[in-house]
Amino acid sequence: MRIAIVTGASSGLGREYAKLLDKEGMDEIWLIARRENRLLELAGEIAAKTRIFPLDLISESTTRQIAEILKQEQPSVRFLIHAAGFGKIGSEEDITEVDIARMIDLNCRAAVLMTHLAIPYMGEKSHILQICSCSAFQPIPYLNVYAATKSFLLHYSRALAVELSPKGIAVSAVCPYWIKDTEFIPIAQNTKNSTYIKGFPFAGTQAAIAAKSFASAKKGKTVITPDAISTLHRFITSILPHQWLMAASKWFHGHGGK
Ligand SMILES: NC(=O)c1ccc[n+]([C@@H]2O[C@H](COP(=O)([O-])OP(=O)(O)OC[C@H]3O[C@@H](n4cnc5c(N)ncnc54)[C@H](OP(=O)(O)O)[C@@H]3O)[C@@H](O)[C@H]2O)c1
Q: Which of 17, 121, 146, 156 is catalytic?
């Protein structure tokens, strides 16, 4: 049985990737996120057979449950797309301990554990897509924990790509700039003070970012910058000192603060 697994499928990029996977001839698409109603709605829009997992990826029982199902069914996992993730904008004092812990647990721990569980069921022409962010390319003040989680995921993905290449498994780190039409920005702004990052100029759209990054991942590209700003950001961060760029990012976002 050829399957694709998508985390964060109830909204935004994950939802778009699930729709793109519908054209890939999978026997089943497994959809994971917490909101069951959203997953059911998406399943109704997909022609391929789907399986709904309304689960919190931060919970240890979720990974145990997925591990058990994989062991029982021994599927061939052709795609694993980890799109579940969230960020929080604010200074150190504006973000709660709960949000800090959950960001690290979802963006890093859950991404790595889901990947670790899926790899034994992957082989030639399988693809892993880790949805990172261009914030992975440098430290970002007022987005510090989130950017650091994405940096972790980018480094993990690049190293894993080298390790898995002899098995024919492609690993891609997708690193977009802001996307305006997902739930990400309102969730990120929901802190004590998110005015440090005021504007999101040149933000992309979920459909365009998902389509472009999915096409690049299928070609086996390891680091994917699916829009002009993230491509420029990657280049600039490779040539300029990060100290300058941290100051510039504060200026770019409108100086911020209360
Ligand atoms: N939008 C941007 O500006 C932007 C830019 C660069 C990178 N990214 C990255 O792109 C990825 C997708 O984000 P998006 O923009 O599509 O945002 P989104 O619309 O908020 O989607 C996030 C998804 O993650 C799921 N999720 C959140 N917490 C979860 C948990 N504990 N367990 C299981 N699922 C959980 C959500 O579903 P439930 O709430 O139903 O669980 C939702 O389906 C994220 O990793 C984000 O960091 C986004």
A: 146
